[in-house]
Amino acid sequence: MTKFSKKTTQWVKLGFINPAQAKQILDHENGQSGKPWVVWGFLALGILVISIGIISLISANLSVIIEGWLELPSVAKLAIDFGALFFISYRAFQARQKQQTVKFEALLLALALGALASIGLISQIYHSGGELFQALLFWCLITAGLPHLSDRRIISSLWGSALLGSITYALFVLVDTSRLEMILDKRDSAGILLSEPLIAAWLTVIFRRLVDEKPITRVFQSLTLLSFLFYLLLIEIGLIHEFSRRAGNSSSMNIFAGLALALGFAILVNRNYPKTQRLLLLGALGSFVAAAFLGLERGDHLLFAKAGLTILTLVFAALFCAARNQTGSFQILLTLIGIRFLSIYFQALGGLAASGFGLILSGIIIIAAVMMWNKYRRAINSWAEGMFR
Fold first, then answer.
1. Residues 276 and 212: beta-carbon distance below 8 Å
2. Which of 64, 107, 231, 261 could be joined to 92 by an S-S link, Cβ 3.0–4.6 Å?
C-alpha cells in the first residue's frame, strides 16, 4: 500500500485528483488490501494440516477402516455419501446467504471434490468400469454450475483443466483403442497432442458466448495461451516428431488440421472482435499450424525455419493481447520473443559465442535488449493497442 500511497500523492501533485479524492481512494484500498490473500493463505494452511492429520489417522488404522467399510451394505455407503454432499451443499447455501465469501468458496470446492469421489464410489459399488475421461466428463457435466457460482479461479481452474484434459483424452480413444499406450509407445499421437491448444481455444470461444467474462472464460484463455507456448516449445526442441508415425500420413494430424480449419472459420465469422484482431488471431493460428507440420520433420536445416514460425506466432499473439489491453500477457510474450531472438543469435554464432569476444558481445546485446525492452514496452503496447483496436 505504500507504493499506492506514493502514486496518489504523485497524482495530486500533477492535478489529476484532489486531496479529498486521494483520501477516499486510499481508504477504499486500505479496506481491500491483502486481506483475502491472507485469509486464503491461512485457510489453505489449515486445510493442509487437517488433511495431513486425516491421512495419518487413516494410515494408522487402514486395515480396520477398510474392513469396516467393506462390511457396510451398499445402501449405507450411498446414504453416507449423499448425506455428506447434502450437508456440504446446505452449508454452502447458508454461507452464500450470509455473504461469507471465503467459507462459501471453500465449501464449493469441497462439494466439487466430493462429487468426484461419489462417482468413484458408485463405480466401485456397481462395478461400472469405464475410462477415466468418461468419469471426468460426467463430473464436469454434474458440476457445471459450480464455476458459474464461484468468484474465484480455483474451482474454475480445476473444472476447466478437467474438461480440457478429458476431451483431449477422448480424442486419443477415437484415433486408437490403445488409449494412453499411444503416448507411451509414441505412435501417431502428435496430432492429438497438438490439438489441445485448439480445443482450449474452442472452449474459450464457446464459454465467452455462454457466460461472457466469467472466471471460467479467463481460465480457458490462460489454458489456451499456456498450451500454445508449451507445444511451440515441443516443436522447437523436436519432441513432436517423436510422437508421429510418419509425416504426411497420420490420422491424428488429420484431426488436428480439421480442428484448425474449423477454428479459423469460427474466428473469421466472429463479430465480437474487430477485423484487425481477427486477422491477428488467424495469423497466430496459421503460424502455429505451419510450425506444427514442420515439427513433424527432422533436420538441422529446418532449425531457423521453426524458429521463424515460433517468433511469428508469438508476434501475432502479442499484438492481439495488446489490442485487447491484456498488458500482462503482452509483456510475457514480448519477453519470450526477445529470448527467442537471443537464442537464435547463440545458435547462429555457435562456438564463437563462447569465445572471449563472443561473450563480451553477447553480454552487451543482452543488456541493450533488456534496456530497450524496459524503455519501450509500454510504448509498444500502446501502439499495438491503438493500431489493432
1. no
2. 107
In the chain, the amino acid numbered 65 is: I
**Cα–Cα nearest to 240, from 294, 200, 288, 199:** 294
CB 175 within 8 A of CB 188: yes
Alpha-carbon distance of 74 to 128, in angstroms, equals 14
Q: Cβ atoms within 10 A of the Cβ of 123, count? A: 14
Cell of 244: 508421429
> Which residues are CB-neighbours of 344 under 8 A, at least 6 positions away?
304, 307
Closest CA to 214 of 162, 164, 160: 160
Asked whether the beta carbons of 244 and 253 are under 8 A apart, the reply is yes
C-alpha 148/C-alpha 145 separation (Å) is 5
Residue 359: pLDDT band (50, 70, 90) is low
Query: If you write DSSP's letter for every residue of 311-368 in order, what string do you get?
Result: HHHHHHHHHHHHHTT-HHHHHHHHHHHHHHHHHHHHHHHGGGGGSHHHHHHHHHHHHH
Give residue-wise pLDDT tens across range 47-97: 666 666 666 665 555 555 555 656 667 788 788 888 988 998 999 888 888
